[in-house]
Design brief:
Blueprint lengths: L1 H15 L2 H10 L1 H13 L5 H15 L11 H19 L3 H11 L8
Length: 114
């Protein structure tokens, strides 16, 4: 019964983000999204400050300066929260024309089509 409840919660969560199809599309395009991030980090038209925040957060997440994992919930949530913050902060400061250019070069749909 517990497994059924967990599966139901997972199903409900995936429905909120576009359903299972959206999750599978994200997984299928993961290498292209990784390439997108690399291209954006190398692009000189993107401000260095968001790049520094993104890379600094990534370094902090893998550094030994993390909150201890034995602290219930917080040890894992700080990494997840920082990752979400860093990605959102970085992508939010990319000029739309630069983002469109890189997405088109990688064969990803435009944000308006998603």
């Amino acid at each position: 019964m517990r497994l059924f409840k967990q599966l139901f919660r997972f199903w409900r969560a995936t429905r909120r983000v576009g359903g299972a199809r959206a999750v599978f599309d994200l997984a299928r395009h993961a290498p292209q999204y990784f390439q997108l991030m690399v291209r954006l980090l190398k692009d000189p038209r993107v401000s260095p400050f968001p790049k520094a925040v993104f890379l600094g957060t990534g370094l902090f997440a893998i550094s030994p300066l993390n909150l201890p994992e034995w602290v219930p919930v917080v040890g894992t949530l700080d990494d997840i929260g920082l990752a979400i913050f860093a990605i959102t902060f970085f992508l939010g400061r990319i000029p739309s024309d630069v983002m469109s250019e890189h997405r088109q070069a990688l064969g990803l749909k435009a944000l308006e089509e998603s």
